[in-house]
Design a protein that fits this description.
Blueprint (H helix, E strand, L loop, with lengths): L10 H11 L1 H10 L1 H8 L6 E7 L13 E2 L2 E2 H9 L7 E6 L2 H9 L3 E4 L7 H11 L6 E4 L9 H12 L6 E7 L12 E4 L5 E5 L18 E10 H6 L7 H6 L3 H6 L4 E5 L11 H12 L4
Parallel strand pairs: 1-4, 1-6, 4-5, 7-11
Antiparallel strand pairs: 2-3, 6-10, 7-10, 8-9, 8-10
Length: 293
């Protein structure tokens, strides 16, 4: 899932939202003693790898990772943005296609070949993790069709998972635009007052008695980036599909239905995904506007 929409957020405002997203870690520090907590925090889930799943076959846009965005393959632009994240020890591309692999090696990326049987990006990340020589504590699933991914958001989901030892998964949300309220391709999320996910849906949640969008309610839009505890990622493919997951067609629900906790951060930024060929021109215009050519 990689929603596509416009953004007015800046890196500084993104960072300010992320601070709110990981404030629970500071509260724990006060509760159990700052020195002891910080000493453990430095070692907890410290090794982090970013994996960019990329497949050639796509019903809506075949060969999408290789499409050129202002003269560079989209997968290269995503890789370059990901490399700017300070929390990642390594960034690799996981693909089942030799054309994509050859392209990525050409611009200097490390590539892990994965099978065509992977049903989603999470399973592809898991297979790639097993093939890496080094061991990692956290795996970040970075959407390959978001060439404007903010490095601060990558760092935010990593830090959120590091600060929440009871969670196995972290992700990001942003404010939902009223015009996207009933779009099933815009996945909505609700969280509890400690920043843990309660539910994800393609429908509008919460849904009020008037059956109308409440302009005063802070609805949340789920963004595609996700990070996992590596031990959890290894068992994820073995978890049986769950009723809510199948009904909504959202893999996050399999995590929640099996009783695992998911930390959510809010960021002042929206994903700029390339879902269909018509999105390429929009992406190029946005990049020119931001002088990111």
């Amino acid at each position: 899932m990689s929603p596509s929409s416009s953004s007015s957020g800046s890196p500084s405002s993104t960072k300010s939202w992320i601070v709110h997203g990981i404030v629970a870690g500071a509260a724990i520090s006060v509760a159990i003693g700052a020195a002891a907590y910080l000493g453990r925090f430095r070692k907890f889930r410290s090794r982090v790898v970013g994996i960019i799943p990329a497949r050639f076959a796509s019903s809506r846009f075949q060969g999408k990772p290789l499409v050129e965005i202002l003269g560079k393959p989209m997968i290269q632009r995503t890789w370059e943005r990901s490399k700017l994240a300070t929390t990642l020890d390594h960034v690799v591309v996981a693909t089942d296609d030799e054309k994509i692999a050859e392209c990525c090696r050409g611009f200097g990326a490390d590539v892990v070949m994965t099978s065509e049987s992977c049903r989603n990006g999470t399973e592809r990340c898991n297979e790639a993790l097993q093939k890496l020589e080094k061991k990692y504590d956290i795996v970040v699933n970075i959407q390959g069709d978001e060439p404007l991914i903010e490095p601060e958001i990558i760092d935010g989901v990593v830090k959120a998972l590091q600060a929440a030892p009871d969670a196995v998964f972290s992700t990001a949300v942003t404010s939902l635009k009223p015009e996207d309220a009933f779009d099933p391709n815009r996945v909505k999320c609700v969280v509890d007052n400690r920043g843990y996910a309660i539910y994800f849906s393609r429908g509008l949640i919460p849904y009020n008695k008037s059956a109308q969008v409440n302009p005063d309610f802070p609805y949340l839009l789920h963004l595609g980036i996700q990070s996992y505890d590596s031990k959890f990622l290894r068992i994820y493919p073995d978890l049986q599909p769950t009723p809510l997951q199948l009904e909504e067609d959202l893999e996050q629900l399999k995590v929640l239905e099996n009783g695992y906790r998911m930390k959510v951060i809010k960021v002042d930024h929206e994903a700029h995904g390339v879902d269909i060929p018509e999105d390429v021109e929009k992406m190029e215009a946005l990049m020119r506007e931001r002088n990111l050519t």
